[in-house]
């Protein structure tokens, strides 16, 4: 059986052979993660084993409910086939959401998101993975009922985000230690069958993206203080997703970005006066205020009396390998189409065109202005834009860098090192 390093090398060679068909952007994005994993494996070999690392990750526990009862009714071979199939499919779901399974314990799976490389949406990936695992549980229940006449076979999931120590020890690559692991385990154990329960720390990173039900503070075994937890009821439709930042319920004004916001406003005014294709790049380190400034600009647009058509799109690590992923996101958002909608929904809505979001001051008789598309460029440093009009890179780490000319499209890119 080939090692993981050999499998990666073979997969990378196969991708290179498909470059003419898939295109440079698709192949390069796929090769980036493969090369990073290959470098990790080779580093581990060179140092005699994986080194310990303290990281912030999102930990996911999944437990199969009803497996003990089922094992009393089936032969060891039959229950082994059922459980191996369930754990294999769960592992595929974790890997599809960019997570890594670290341990199997009986009918439980322990996975981590952000163990190999940190990403700003690790918590979101873990929650989406948890919802997909609940779907798997419902599918398994139907299969077990049909094959063995047993009801009550399901899964439950817990997710917590916090610091852990990865690597080293007896288990080496599967080693993960820290209080955060125990919290995730307690969340899974106290979740109802067929439910996904997350901690307050995870909730703070994904609120606005999912529907939640608060369970209030709960006293859990081994924890001194009660733990606030939430049940995730499902993902919000794409048109209503808005990752909320800051402290919930506290409204603050933007500070220290007046100059940059004024640049956006002047550029927009010039665009209205003389429409032409142009682009603005907002570039800076994570947390310096790029997203907040774009939110303020959107509020300013909405407060104007003139009508504006605002089309949003964003790229995430999940969509980095999807051909035309950014364009598809722009179209589906503008048509208010969700991934789960049947094919007829986009067909009907595309015939009527995108909906126009504007303020209550809109005058229906006023002609529509040139459409504006804007997005965010978050977590990126040293981004270079190749256009005939603009080129920029981070010049001041404490402030977003702006290159102006005018914004007909605010380029949307998340966690990209080079944009062309």
Question: How does this structure look, described?
Answer:
The protein is an alpha/beta fold and 420 residues long. The chain has three domains: 1-35, no CATH class; 49-236, Nucleotide cyclase, GGDEF domain (Alpha-Beta Plaits); 258-414, no CATH class. It is built from twelve helices and 15 strands. Strands 1, 2, 3, 4, 5, 6, 7 and 8 form an eight-stranded mixed β-sheet that branches. A three-stranded mixed β-sheet has the order 13-9-14, covered by helices on one side. Helix 9 (258-273) packs across helix 10 (290-303). It is globular and about 75 Å long. The two termini are 40 Å apart. The model is unreliable at 355-420 (pLDDT under 50).
SSE blueprint:
Layout: H1 4-17, H2 19-22, H3 24-46, E1 53-65, H4 67-71, H5 76-96, E2 100-105, E3 108-113, H6 122-148, E4 154-166, E5 176-177, H7 179-190, E6 196-199, H8 200-206, E7 210-218, E8 227-235, H9 258-273, E9 279-283, H10 290-303, E10 310-312, H11 325-334, H12 344-352, E11 372-374, E12 377-378, E13 401-403, E14 409-410, E15 413-414
Parallel strand pairs: 4-6, 9-14, 10-11, 12-15
Antiparallel strand pairs: 1-3, 1-4, 2-3, 4-5, 6-8, 7-8, 9-13
Sum up the structure in keywords:
420 residues; alpha/beta; three-stranded mixed sheet; globular
């Amino acid at each position: 059986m080939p090692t993981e390093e050999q499998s990666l090398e073979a997969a990378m060679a196969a991708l290179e052979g498909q470059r003419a068909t898939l295109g440079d952007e698709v192949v390069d994005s796929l090769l980036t993660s493969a090369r990073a994993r290959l470098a990790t494996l080779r580093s581990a070999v060179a140092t005699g084993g994986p080194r310990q690392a303290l990281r912030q990750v999102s930990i996911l526990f999944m437990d199969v409910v009803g497996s003990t009862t089922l094992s009393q009714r089936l032969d060891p071979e039959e229950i082994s086939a059922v459980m191996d199939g369930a754990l294999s499919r769960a592992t595929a779901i974790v890997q599809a959401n960019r997570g890594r399974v670290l341990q199997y314990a009986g009918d439980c799976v322990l996975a981590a998101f952000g163990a190999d490389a940190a990403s700003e949406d690790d918590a979101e990936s873990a929650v989406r993975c948890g919802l997909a695992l609940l779907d798997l549980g419902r599918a398994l229940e139907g299969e077990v009922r049909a094959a063995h006449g047993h009801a009550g076979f399901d899964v439950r999931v817990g997710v917590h985000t916090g610091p852990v120590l990865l690597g080293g020890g007896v288990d080496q690559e599967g080693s993960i230690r820290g209080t955060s692991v125990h919290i995730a385990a307690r969340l899974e154990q106290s979740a109802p069958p067929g439910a996904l329960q997350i901690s307050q720390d995870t909730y703070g990173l994904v609120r606005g993206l999912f529907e939640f039900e608060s369970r209030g503070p709960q006293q859990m075994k081994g924890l001194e203080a009660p733990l606030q937890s939430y049940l995730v009821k499902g993902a919000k439709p794409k048109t209503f997703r808005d990752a909320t930042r800051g402290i919930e319920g506290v409204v603050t004004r933007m500070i220290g970005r007046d100059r940059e916001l004024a640049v956006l406003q002047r550029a927009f005014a010039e665009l209205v006066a003389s429409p032409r294709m142009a682009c603005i790049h907002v570039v800076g380190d994570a947390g310096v205020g790029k997203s907040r400034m774009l939110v303020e600009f959107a509020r300013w647009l909405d407060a104007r009396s003139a009508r504006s058509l605002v089309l949003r799109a964003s790229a995430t690590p999940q969509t980095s390998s999807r051909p035309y992923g950014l364009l598809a996101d722009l179209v589906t958002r503008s048509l208010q189409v969700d991934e789960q909608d049947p094919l007829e929904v986009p067909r009907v809505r595309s015939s009527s065109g995108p909906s126009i979001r504007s303020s209550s001051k809109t005058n229906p008789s006023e002609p529509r202005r040139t459409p504006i598309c804007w997005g965010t460029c978050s977590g990126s440093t040293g981004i270079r834009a190749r256009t005939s009009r603009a080129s920029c890179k981070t010049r001041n780490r404490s402030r977003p860098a702006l290159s102006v000319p005018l914004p007909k499209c605010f380029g949307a890119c998340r966690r990209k090192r080079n944009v062309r």
